[in-house]
Design brief:
alpha/beta, Leucine-rich repeat, LRR (right-handed beta-alpha superhelix), 13-stranded parallel sheet, 19 helices, globular, leucine-rich repeat
């Protein structure tokens, strides 16, 4: 599929394709053409031209999402291209904007917004090398440190010290880049490039380091907070976090696995849970909440009823919800606003079929993403599922891997899915009849890949043929056996793996020590 380009854009491409000539000509280019040349340079991966455009940026703001998004001159959105060449050129150009004293343009730049960059699985850039969120955090922090060293040591133009540019970014901090980011945040006042953290994700951090850095980020600006892998945050720590820090703009909150475990609750814990719910109720902007792999049986109402703003995204996968929890969700005011819902890991047909369909009915007019992985949905439930999904005409994504469905049932379901007008992504399970007879669900990791791969390929082809015959080539259907793509995990998987091995080793050593003492 080719996207139409205007004559202006074609001319811009022609200019920037000759990097040497384009760089020499920038002084004669009208200010309002810089955005056009930037997008053309990004498309052609002309790193040197990108660097010089940013170094001489003549406008008040530089917004990556808008610059790379659909424009009248070129409709294609390039914001999902996290091309390493382009992004590094962009950020080093920003550093040199501060240092360049001979630029013919007055230094007007006040805001740089890097938050519109989207990390996706498939990259279309020629270099095939990406710069993910962690690497962008790392590079920007390095450049801020470089600038400070330069400003302290060199004979700078006095005007350089007056430059103040807010750089809006989604930070991603792990143990490996922690010290560098802390230094950049601590010296923010002295640096012309001022890191403004809009979204913050932390993995592989001790609680002490997490609490320290989250205060440095200026939580009053934070819109998204993700505390994900290997940050051992439990309910008492969450209460301390909410009591000590105010998040007035927070819209999205992701908590790590096992933050809550109601099975070992005391009366004090119940009071703590109530207070946490009340604190979340004070976050007037909060519309996205992810609490997967916590044990929340019977406590959903206590946590969510204080919220004054309806949730648009809720992830309560593997949270051991009971009928009372599902009844609260189905009848709460959130139900009419839910655009993304994840109820994976619950035996929906057995525990609360009618309540679930009531919830689905209430959110059907707005629901965009539904995830029902490992929910024990069987062939006998498919007709009911189709009935429940029929009103969901805005559904774009449906994930249901890990359910014991036969090839025949999947074909029946796919025939229906073709009718959902804006569906884009389907993640379906390996058919039950591809596994050995007697396989039990949920399937353990050891047995997950032990299926008839040739038979699966044949079924997958048949399912894709159903889409093709219905003119739905726009729908991507796949079976990610080990879960959906996670850009953050992909980028830091080496560090994550090393951390897990270290934790396992420490646990083993503790066990051995205890065993020896007993002996």
């Amino acid at each position: 599929r080719t996207t139409m380009k205007s004559l202006r854009f074609i001319s811009a491409e022609a200019l920037v394709s000759n990097a040497e000539f384009a760089r020499k000509s920038l002084g004669a280019v009208a200010h309002d053409l810089f955005p056009l040349l930037f997008k053309a340079s990004y498309l052609l991966e002309q790193g040197e031209v990108i660097h010089d455009l940013v170094e001489n940026w003549p406008l008040f703001d530089f917004n990556m999402g808008k610059l790379l998004g659909a424009t009248l001159d070129y409709q294609e959105d390039l914001s999902h291209r996290t091309c390493s060449v382009c992004l590094e050129s962009c950020l080093t150009g920003l550093r040199d904007y501060v240092l360049n004293q001979s630029s013919p343009y007055m230094k007007k730049l006040r805001v740089v917004d890097l938050t519109g960059i989207k990390d996706v699985e498939v990259q279309f850039c020629k270099c095939k090398k990406t710069m993910g969120r962690w690497a962008r955090t790392q590079l920007l922090s390095e450049l801020c440190s470089e600038l400070l060293v330069y400003l302290q040591g060199a004979q700078c133009n006095p005007g350089t010290f007056e430059i103040s540019i807010n750089v809006l970014i989604d930070l991603f901090v792990t143990e490996r880049n922690y010290e560098l980011v802390v230094q950049a945040l601590l010296k923010k006042c002295s640096c012309p490039l001022k890191i403004c953290c809009v979204a913050f994700r932390s993995d592989n951090l001790t609680l002490q380091k997490f609490f320290y850095i989250i205060k440095l980020t200026d939580p009053s600006l934070l819109r998204k907070l993700e505390i994900v892998h290997n940050v051992h945050l439990e309910m008492e720590h969450l209460e301390i976090l909410f009591n000590s820090i105010h998040f007035p703009l927070l819209m999205s909150l992701t908590l790590p696995a096992r933050t809550f475990n109601v099975r070992r609750f005391t009366a004090t814990d119940e009071q703590m849970l109530t207070k946490i719910g009340e604190k979340m109720g004070e976050m007037m902007q909060l519309t996205e909440l992810s609490m997967s792999f916590s044990i929340l049986t019977g406590r959903i109402q206590k946590l969510l009823s204080p919220l004054k703003t309806p949730l648009k995204m809720l992830d309560v996968s593997n949270c051991s919800l009971n009928h009372a929890d599902m009844a609260f969700l189905a009848n709460s005011f959130h139900a009419n606003y839910l655009e993304a819902l994840d109820l994976s890991g619950h035996d929906i047909p057995e525990l609360y079929p009618s309540t679930f369909f009531q919830l689905l009915s209430h959110c059907s007019s707005v629901l965009r993403s539904l995830t029902l992985e490992d929910c024990n949905i069987q062939d006998t439930h498919v007709n009911m599922l189709i009935l429940g999904l029929s009103p969901c005409q805005k559904l774009q994504e449906f994930k249901f891997i890990g359910n014991p469905l036969s090839s025949q049932a999947l074909k029946h379901l796919f025939t229906f899915l073709c009718e959902l007008p804006i569906l884009k992504n389907v993640e379906f399970p390996v058919p039950k009849d591809c596994y050995p007879i007697g396989i039990t669900y949920p399937i353990d990791d050891a047995s997950l890949c032990r299926f008839d791969h040739q038979k699966y390929e044949r079924v997958a082809e048949e399912l894709n043929l159903i889409l093709l015959q219905a003119n739905r080539e726009d729908v991507k259907a796949s079976t990610p056996l080990f879960g959906s793509y996670d850009a953050a995990v992909q980028e830091t998987n080496n560090e994550l793996g090393a951390y897990l091995i270290k934790s396992f080793k420490e646990t083993l050593e503790k066990f051995t020590t205890s065993f020896n003492k007993m002996s």
